[in-house]
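Just wondering, does anyone understand what follows?

——
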Amino acid sequence: MIAVEPSLSDLAAASGIEARTIRSWVAQGLLPAPLNRGPAARYPADTLERVLAIRAMRDVLGMPLAEIRKELLVASPDQIRAYASRVPGSAQEPAPPPAASSALDYISALRAGPGVASKPPPPAAAPLAAPPLQGFDALEHRLGQGRAEPARKARAEEWLRIPITPDVELTVRAPLDAEQRVRLERCADLIRDILLGRDR
């Protein structure tokens, strides 16, 4: 069982990701910084889920780190948990029942424990429901249900800063294409309307 506030070695052991890779992801802004410094440094409790989610997005879905960073900006905790569960053999993913042709085979496989060769499980049926909205689509849907979208021009700077109110600013550190910039500005307009009470 992993600690409530895991250490770097806890994260590496539980995720199968090398400690230096986890440090690199912290430096790139994909993971939160440790809560304290030094060899006994501890990380926030949800860091393991984020590590597993990044691993799944990179290894299972083939996403580059720049795209993963954008997805993590807007992903809800449930979406991060869903990504983390896609890592094969992770503690987040329930183990499939052993395949067996008879009750005797099933009991023998259970007694033998993990690592015993068995027939591969039958392929899973394709889900019938549409996948939940993710990323920018989920953010826009939550913020602007039923509202008209204002026309916006994309900004062309590396750091995208969008003022919302005199005290609030939306800042994104990532190279975004023109469509992504326009979508973020639409989201900023929706946030501004909500904060200023114009969302009715």
Summary: The radius of gyration is 22 Å. The chain has a mean pLDDT of 75. The first helix runs from residue 8 to 15. The longest strand covers residues 159-165.
